[in-house]
Design brief:
With about 190 residues, the chain is of the alpha/beta class. The protein has four helices and eleven strands, in the order βαβββαβββββαβαβ. Strands 5-6-7-10-11 form a five-stranded mixed sheet, with helices on one face. A two-stranded parallel ribbon has the order 1-2. A two-stranded antiparallel ribbon has the order 3-4. The longest helix has 14 residues.
C-alpha cells in the first residue's frame, strides 16, 4: 500500500577528517536532491552528524549546534507532510503519516545534547525532556487509531542500558497498547 518510497537516513552521514565542512554539506544536499527523484527523503540525526575532527587522534574539531544541523536537514529533506515541534524550531525530530498504509513514522533526534561545539564529536546520546514530551503527546498519543507507529532512531535501542534516553523512549512506546510499534534503530555496539 505504500505508494511513494521513503528513503530514511539512519544517521552518521559524515566525512572523515576535514578542516571545512562546507563542501561536504553541499555534497550531502546534492545527494538528497538526487534521491528525491526516487522517493521522499527523511534524515534521522546520528551522534556524528555534522561533527568532525581536524585530524585523527585529536579532539579538536567542530560540532554543529542543533539549529544549524536542523537547518541543513530541513533544506535537504521532504517537508510537505512533516510535522515538527513548533515550540522547538531548531529541532531535528518530527513525524509524518502514510495515510493509505496507516503508518506514522516518528523520527527521533537521539543526539540533541551538544556538550562542546569546539570539539569533534561533541554530541552525547540524549533525548531531551522537551522532545520526549512532544514525541509522546503529539506523535504517539496523537496518532490516529489503528495506525502502526514506526520509530526511527540512530542510537541503538538497548546498547546503553536502562538509563539510556533512547531506551526510556522505547520502553514508553511499548507500554502503549493502542498501536503496533515497529522500531528501526542504528548500529548495535558495545564498549567492553
Amino acid at each position: 500500500n505504500i505508494k511513494t518510497p521513503k528513503i530514511v537516513f539512519g544517521g552518521d552521514i559524515i566525512p572523515s577528517f576535514v578542516d571545512d565542512m562546507t563542501p561536504f554539506i553541499k555534497q550531502y544536499e546534492g545527494q538528497c536532491e538526487y534521491l528525491k527523484g526516487f522517493g521522499r527523503v527523511y534524515p534521522a540525526r546520528g551522534n556524528h552528524d555534522f561533527t568532525f575532527k581536524y585530524a585523527p587522534g585529536k579532539p579538536e574539531g567542530v560540532t554543529y549546534d542543533n539549529a544549524s544541523t536542523s537547518d541543513i536537514f530541513r533544506r535537504s529533506m521532504t517537508l510537505d507532510n512533516v510535522v515538527h515541534n513548533a515550540a522547538d524550531p531548531g529541532s531535528s525530530y518530527y513525524y509524518f503519516d502514510e495515510k493509505k498504509s496507516k503508518i506514522r513514522y516518528v523520527i527521533l533526534d537521539s543526539s540533541d545534547y551538544i556538550k562542546d561545539t569546539s570539539r569533534g564529536f561533541g554530541i552525547v546520546d540524549s533525548i531531551s525532556i522537551e522532545q520526549r514530551r512532544w514525541i509522546f503527546r503529539k506523535a504517539i498519543l496523537g496518532a490516529p487509531k489503528k495506525y502502526s507507529i514506526l520509530i526511527v532512531s540512530h542510537a541503538p535501542q538497548f546498547a546503553y542500558g536502562a538509563d539510556s534516553p533512547t531506551e526510556q523512549v522505547m520502553q514508553g512506546l511499548s507500554a502503549l497498547s493502542t498501536h503496533s510499534p515497529i522500531i528501526l534503530d542504528g548500529e548495535e555496539y558495545r564498549f567492553d
